[in-house]
């Protein structure tokens, strides 16, 4: 195996290039995987941070983000009166587009009752909305659009005042904004509108048991965790195809780069390999040399690549705070395994070149 | 072809594996950007389908509403009559609109649900492949792709807006990556939404001699609290939704594609140059000037990139054809702007990729050719 190491390290530039090639590919894959987990994490931010274990939605609706749910008028009363219910958080939600400085952005607008809860969980500045037409928006969004507390922004057909800035409320297609329920009722010309109810069971009542008890005509009673999972599925439909495509391309590029480097390194040492063959070495030994080279390059590349991904992720979040990159240990493990597969695939090509080598080659010019 | 070009081609193509890797790597890296651009352009196309095919010249919405996707627009019922009274309006008709989940058997999907008056002259399904193109109370028209996935057909029941409706028609061309379009009766929609006297949009056909822009401006002047746009403006606002919201993602992915492409092409050209050190040494010993050698190296990089670009483009186009044959409802649209952008990318990559090998050649000692045992 000394031979493998020597082959690799003799030309330092080439070794660095091969490691860099793998590192870029691995880094790209880890970063994309982290970006995807970040999207998912952001998507469930509201439900994750709002108390309660059960969500009541319009019949047929099982997600929180994708659709405009409308509950039957009697739902709040019916749920609140059910034994085992400790607290009900009524929510009106609506996706709205707003435009400022010529750029469109999305608000996932949450109407909530300040007494019942369901508002911003991490207020960075200012206060919660106290009267109608007051709004709490995400701090990053505010920075991007140069909005400060006290500013008026246009929301559909009215001007609203920003009274607070919240953290942890950006997500894939904009950010979460909070207003009083009555503001949404009048914006949407729908008095009494409730989109969802988030239910907190009494101590000692299991969510599953309460879910069985709760039965409201025209409404769907769901476990909060199931709603979160459904939101992820909804996102996966939109995001997984492009991200999967890019991960596949990065993988192939990684294999190509490692293969190319090992191949070149091997071809250039043909005479030496021929000599080893001439003194009686079997093909198996040569395969081992080539495979070891590939492994060293791949492992070194993977380590650098993971570091690169962490660095790039941190850089990205600093540059564009609305992006969240969550690099998960599982993803890193999968990528490490992938890099080993890469190395094996990449070693196949040069191995063939070595196997076909004539021992006599060494004696030629 | 010039001598430098010939030499570059020979250097590149003599080693077939290396050549394939170089061009393939460039192609893949460029496809990364091309495919992503195409996906977003395709999504933008799909997003505007309903607006483009509605048959309306002008859209009247709640003040401040300039988009359709996932938004809410609610106008008082009286707006329809006020719009009709404006000079230049030949026909006007209200629709109700909401983004909802429709459910049939185990299949659930996000849909634009449109509430259509029974005598709808605009805004209805434009390509009904089976059944009726009109919806009465208790009826629904759904996209045929949704019906196929759910394994339902005409006569079956769909859960929509918290109630139920029977399928009376299947329409084509009404599905996108994100959602499909379903049509229910105006009265059902209103009843399911607590019966409030509101409409979402008023669709307008303008009189023959009138221009949509002028009529739109007139409506906005005469009807209070509305935002009025021509169908073309509405459609371009909707496209901007995609471009504005995906701009950052696209630039990040493009940057990554750029770096990967650069790494692959720089590496292959570098290795190809390294392997031909002796030949370059011979040329130098024979009196070739560095400039000529640089040109050879640069030509190698440019050739790899140009071929990679062509293949990447073909690959993305093929991918689009393949995706269109799947159930994915994903459309890949390759735009001229994207091709130009990626072409520029490729040119910059070729230039940068040549720097490292050029340094290698510049430092080459002509005497290298006289030594034995140097890597060949």
List keywords for this structure.
heterodimer; A: 365 residues; alpha+beta; seven-stranded mixed sheet; four-stranded mixed sheet; 11 strands; B: 376 residues; 2 domains; ten-stranded mixed sheet; two-stranded antiparallel ribbon; 52% helix; elongated
Structure, explained:
The complex is a heterodimer of chains A (365) and B (376). Chain A is α+β, with helices and mostly antiparallel strands. Chain A is built from 11 helices and 11 strands. In chain A, strand 6 and strand 7 form a beta hairpin. In chain A, helix 2 runs antiparallel to helix 11, helix 8 packs across helix 10 and helix 8 packs parallel to helix 11. In chain A, 50% of the residues are buried. The model of chain A has no long low-confidence stretch (mean pLDDT 84). In chain B, 52% of the residues lie in helices and 20% in strands. Chain B has 12 helices and 12 strands. In chain B, the strands form 2 sheets. In chain B, strands 1, 3, 4, 5, 6, 7, 8, 9, 11 and 12 form a 10-stranded mixed beta sheet that branches. In chain B, strands 2-10 form a two-stranded antiparallel sheet. Classes of the chains: A alpha+beta (365), B alpha+beta (376).
Layout of helices and strands, plus pairs?
The complex is a heterodimer of chains A (365) and B (376).
Chain A (H helix, E strand, L loop, with lengths): L1 H9 L1 H32 L1 H5 L4 E5 L16 H6 L4 E16 L2 E10 L10 E4 L7 E5 H6 L7 E4 L2 E9 L3 E2 L2 E7 H7 L8 E6 L5 H7 L5 E5 H45 L1 H9 L4 H37 L9 H27 L10
Parallel strand pairs in A: 3-9, 5-7
Antiparallel strand pairs in A: 1-10, 1-11, 2-3, 2-10, 4-7, 6-7, 8-9
Helix pairs in contact in A: 1-10, 2-8, 2-10, 2-11, 8-10, 8-11, 10-11
Chain B lengths: L2 H12 L1 H32 L1 H5 L4 E5 L12 E2 L1 H7 L4 E16 L2 E10 L11 E4 L7 E5 H7 L6 E4 L2 E9 L8 E6 H7 L5 E2 L1 E6 L5 H11 L3 E5 H45 L1 H9 L4 H35 L11 H18 L1 H8 L14
Parallel strand pairs in B: 4-9, 6-8
Antiparallel strand pairs in B: 1-11, 1-12, 2-10, 3-4, 3-11, 5-8, 6-9, 7-8
